[in-house]
Amino acid sequence: MTWSVIATWKFSLTGVAEAGKLVACGRKSLDAVEQVARYVEDDPSVDTVGYGGIPNVAGEVELDAAIMNGEDLSIGAVMGVKGYRNPISIARKVLEDTPHNILVGQGAEDFAARKGFEKTMLLSEKSIETWFKMMNELKAGNKHIEGHDTVGVVALDTFGRMASGTSTSGISMKYRGRVGDSPLVGSGFYVDDYVGGAAATGVGEDIMKGCTCFYAVELMREGCNPREAAELAVMRTHKRIFEKTGKVGNIAIVCADNKGNFGGAANHEGFEYAAASDKCLPKIYVVEPV
Ligand code: ASP
After folding, report:
1. What distance in Å separates the CA atoms of residue 188 and residue 212, rounded to the nearest whole number?
2. Which of 9, 33, 113, 285 is 20 to 30 Å apart from 138, CA to CA?
């Protein structure tokens, strides 16, 4: 029976391996996506997702997450959530238990509390230290926006159902209330069982300009394989922005189709993803820039 799980960055490998076991045993692709994201959210060594994420300029860890069901295109997303470790699970509750697609800020936090999620401290010693260092750099005039590593996942289960999702603390030293591509449908993630799915990481301000994940899925619909779709979608967004501005932030995406094939692309060095399927053991793939 065909299944696959693919996720951005090396830090997803353990989650991908565990999620692969879930789908291999007949669990849903939604469970796999949630599982990978939770692994990364709970990992204190990852300072870009969940616990220990680098705070915003005001010193608060504001988290964004989303999950999408490729069967009926239902979506759950939360944005700017503070004090909860696993925003991916809150997003899934939004998808499954509300008539809405997105909850933000206080509304999302109230919802999480009503659903029994435990409020917790998200700052780690390391993230506080990093925040002070970055604050000093900002004060010294080194103002820049950096991509900083979202977990983005696409999964196919043995029933042919697909899901995708993301979880992130966003760009380091972002403004309070800033939202990137990650919880925005079509930009940070998209999936349709009829075709396949995509998830992104990089500078959200640029990724969302190209609706990059939706475009990648549409390219697969037109016959591209996941790697070609990822490359063309990244290139198109990059090229369009570069032509007029001369600069583009980091953009990387992973794609998978409904047959178990997967691939990734990036407009920069250093992008890696983790993937596993019924044909491939869990492994890290290094991507050459397009
Ligand atoms: N895409 C994320 C954001 O813009 C950050 C990242 O993936 O590096 O919030």
Report:
1. 7
2. 9
Dump pLDDT digits (tens) for 261-276.
999 999 999 999 999 9
Hey, which residues are catalytic here? 150
Q: Give the chain's length.
A: 290
CB of 197 within 8 A of CB of 233? no
148 lines ligand 1 (CB under 6 A): yes
| CA separation for the pair 131, 270 (Å, rounded) | 24
Structure tokens that stand for 108 in this block: 């999302």
| Token pair 């922005």 in the structure block, residue | 241
Contacts of 151 (CB under 8 A, 6+ apart): 7, 8, 9, 11, 12, 15, 36, 37, 40, 41, 46, 49, 166, 167, 168, 201
DSSP letter, residue 185:
B
Please give the Cα distance from 188 to 184 (Å, whole number): 6
- DSSP secondary structure letter of residue 117: P
Most informative mutation of 10, 48, 168, 234 for ligand 1 (most atoms within 8 A of CB): 168
CA of 159 to the centre of ligand 1 (A): 31
CA distance 89 to 124: 21
Nearest partner of 82 among 102, 67, 60, judged by Cα: 60
Other Cβ atoms closer than 10 A to 116:
7
Residue 250: CB within 6 Å of ligand 1? no
